[in-house]
Design brief:
Strand content: 15-25%
Catalytic activity: L-aspartate + L-glutamine + ATP + H2O = L-asparagine + L-glutamate + AMP + diphosphate + H(+)
Distance between the termini: 43 Å
Keywords: Amino-acid biosynthesis, Asparagine biosynthesis, ATP-binding, Glutamine amidotransferase, Ligase, Nucleotide-binding
Organism: Actinopolymorpha rutila
EC number: 6.3.5.4
Number of strands: 20
Largest sheet: 7 strands, antiparallel
Helix content: 40-55%
Number of helices: 25
Oligomer: single chain
Shape: globular
Strand order of the largest sheet: 5-4-6-7-8-13-14
Radius of gyration: 24 Å
Protein name: asparagine synthase (glutamine-hydrolyzing)
Number of domains: 3
Structural class: alpha+beta
CATH topology of the largest domain: Glutamine Phosphoribosylpyrophosphate, subunit 1, domain 1
CATH architecture of the largest domain: 4-Layer Sandwich
Length: about 625
């Protein structure tokens, strides 16, 4: 896993802009602590920071190749300082690549059979030759998580490619004569041509809890949509989707479906265990992470490489003081330890306290990693600290993320009122619980932003995209819509959070449940089959019941943990009080003083204060972001 960045300008000679390219590349050092490289041509500048995972010596980047099947491959020389042996000859294409392609061995054999020669064992070289063989269509051949850019010197064309589910991020910023791009906004913002502006739509994105495809908080900056390619040439910028969910008849009966899910999971995890560096799993004691850990333990044992190493996050006193609520019925720790013992894992708990979560340097690091504020506070900070601790032992981790979106695990999948609401189901459930308090904005700004209209527009766009199956009606039709919303709008929040918090410490997190073969198969299984036993995630549970203790297999869905220590909420309020007392705080013109004072006077630990806590987290982060990033506001009066 790595960090990439670059710049195309058809009216400038970028050979003279190496200092700017170096600054852009330096922002990605956290994503790639092991190596760096740059390459410049007349109208292109490419940067790369490397986290070495496969072929530690041979996968250096940017990487170049000649055209044709018998071409050479190596580190490109012209314009590239300090990156080793120069590339000999004129390259046909140069790549800066981030990710893992899990079928790269099969692709290498296929490409070698038609004449391609390889000098390394890296998947990067395979992807580069796949471009030379298939051009823009290469992405259809890839299985994995990736975001990369290819510059074709024969046509002066840049191709930006992102994986099907959007596991790896990729942003771009069109300019009058080209484009800037990077794994994260910070790489683009290091170029003077990029402006740091928060406009109305950017603010709506920060507040709406709906991930609109392609949008970012920064005006003029966009994400490459998952499953898409963006081509930039002298004629302009062109977007094309190479993959999207399709509605298909599901031909299999229940037993066959369960067996197929298990077969797919076995293959996926086996592929994702490939690594030349230490590997582990993330374990929460829930069904999803327990399945991944158990399958990893099984796969490692079969190759004589066990035991599996696992890690869990916990908070001081969390089990002892645990209070069940509508989202979390049980603490994680007992189930974590039972599963770890069951599969004989080499397990470690990363236990955090309020002092860890409120550490100013840590909270600042989380903001910089995310490039934007968030309202989830400790759920970002604890994840960052978990990953930082894991990185001392492992470079790669397997996660259970996204199983809820694929198999239908969240509570609102099974709440009739949320499902039938004329909006995204999670918004319907959060709204009933008082989640609108998260805004805490000036009433005039709130009216001008009109979040309900923004969300409604986003919902209509998503609804119009849903693939349909002829004759599908009633609940089956609606649950296809709900599944589509989660796989295209909701999961992006979680994948982005995991990527940013992990790569801030140079930890690669793999997401087996996002394998597109599994996603496509389960998406088209009937909802009645996905809930055949009256439970959530019925297919996943049935496919893996033999791997887990009964208590873990039967455990009800419990989201990523949040600290319940009253001292944490009190510490937040103290920081919030200090902010309100600063007349020059940049966020104050956006905040409703009456509502802010009301949150401060609530009793710690009350039901309403849970939402007040999220509002405080958001305002604290927004203030810090506006100040540290020098963001210019372009908001309606």
């Amino acid at each position: 896993m790595c960090g990439i960045t670059g710049w195309v300008d058809f009216e400038r000679d970028l050979d003279h802009e190496r200092a700017v390219l170096a600054a852009m590349t330096a922002t990605m050092a956290c994503r790639g602590p092991d190596d760096e490289g740059t390459w410049t041509g007349a109208h292109v500048a490419l940067g790369h920071r490397r986290l070495s995972v496969i072929d530690l010596q041979g996968g250096r980047q940017p990487m170049a190749a000649e055209s044709g099947g018998d071409g050479d491959t190596g580190t490109p020389g012209p314009g590239t300082p300090d990156v080793g042996t120069p590339y000999v000859g004129t390259p046909a294409a140069v790549i800066t690549y981030s990710g893992e392609v899990y079928n790269f061995r099969e692709l290498r054999e296929e490409l070698a059979a038609v004449g391609h020669r390889f000098r390394t064992r890296s998947d990067t070289e395979v992807v580069l030759h796949a471009y030379l063989e298939w051009g823009e269509d290469l992405a259809a051949h890839l299985n994995g998580m990736y975001a990369f850019a290819v510059w074709d010197t024969r046509t002066d064309t840049l191709l930006l490619v992102r994986d099907r589910m959007g596991i790896k991020p990729l942003y771009y910023y069109p300019t009058p004569h080209g484009v800037l791009f990077g794994s994260e906004p910070k790489a683009i913002l290091a170029n003077p041509a990029a402006k740091r502006v928060l406009d109305a739509d950017g603010m709506r994105e920060l507040l709406s809890f709906v991930k609109t495809p392609e949008r970012s908080p920064f005006a003029g900056m966009y994400e490459v949509r998952p499953g898409s390619v963006v081509r930039v040439d002298r004629e302009g910028l062109h977007k094309r989707r190479y993959w999207q969910l399709e509605a298909r008849e599901h031909p299999d009966d229940l037993d066959t479906t369960v067996a197929t899910v298990r077969e797919l999971l076995e293959d996926i995890v086996t592929r994702q265990l490939v690594s030349d560096v230490p590997l582990c799993t993330l374990l929460s004691g829930g069904l999803d992470s327990s399945v991944i850990t158990a399958l990893a333990a099984k796969g490692l044992a079969e190759r004589g490489a066990g035991p599996v190493r696992s890690f869990a996050v916990d908070f001081v006193g969390q089990t002892e003081r645990f209070r069940a609520d509508a989202m979390r019925g049980t603490p994680d720790a007992p189930y974590v330890h039972e599963l770890a013992e069951h599969v004989a894992a080499d397990h470690s708990d990363i236990v955090l306290d309020t002092q860890d979560l409120m550490d100013r340097d840590v909270r600042s690091a989380v903001l910089r990693a995310n490039d934007a504020p968030n309202g989830m506070g400790d759920m970002f900070t604890s994840l960052y600290l978990l990953f930082a601790a894991i990185r001392a032992h492992s470079t790669v981790a397997l996660s259970g993320e996204s199983a809820d979106e694929v198999f239908g695990g969240y509570l609102w999948f099974h709440d009739p009122a949320a499902v039938s609401a004329d909006t995204f189901p999670w918004l319907a459930m959060f709204g009933r619980a008082g989640g609108e308090r998260l805004g805490m904005l000036d009433p005039g700004l709130t009216r001008a932003l009109d979040l309900p209209a923004y969300r409604a527009d986003s919902y209509r766009q998503a609804l119009a995209e849903v693939p349909r199956l002829s004759g599908e009606v009633g609940l089956e039709r609606r649950m296809r819509e709900v599944s589509y919303f989660h796989l295209t709008r909701f999961v992006q929040y979680l994948l982005d959070r995991k990527d940013r918090m992990s790569m801030a410490s140079g930890l690669e997190v793999r997401v087996p449940f996002c394998d597109h073969r599994l996603v496509e198969y389960v998406f088209n299984a009937p909802w009645a089959m996905k809930t055949y036993d009256g439970r959530e995630k019925s297919l996943l549970r049935a496919a893996t019941v033999d791997l887990l203790p009964e208590s873990v297999s039967a455990r009800r869905k419990s989201p990523y943990p949040s600290t319940q220590d009253p001292a944490y909420e009190q510490a937040l309020r103290e920081e919030f009080g200090k902010l309100l007392a600063r007349p020059d705080a940049p966020v104050l013109p956006l905040v409703d003083p009456k509502q802010a004072d009301g949150i401060l006077t609530e009793s710690v630990g009350t039901v309403s204060s849970e939402f007040g806590r999220r509002a405080v987290e958001l305002v604290l982060g927004l203030d810090q972001w506006l100040e540290e990033y020098g963001v210019e506001l372009d908001l309606p009066a």
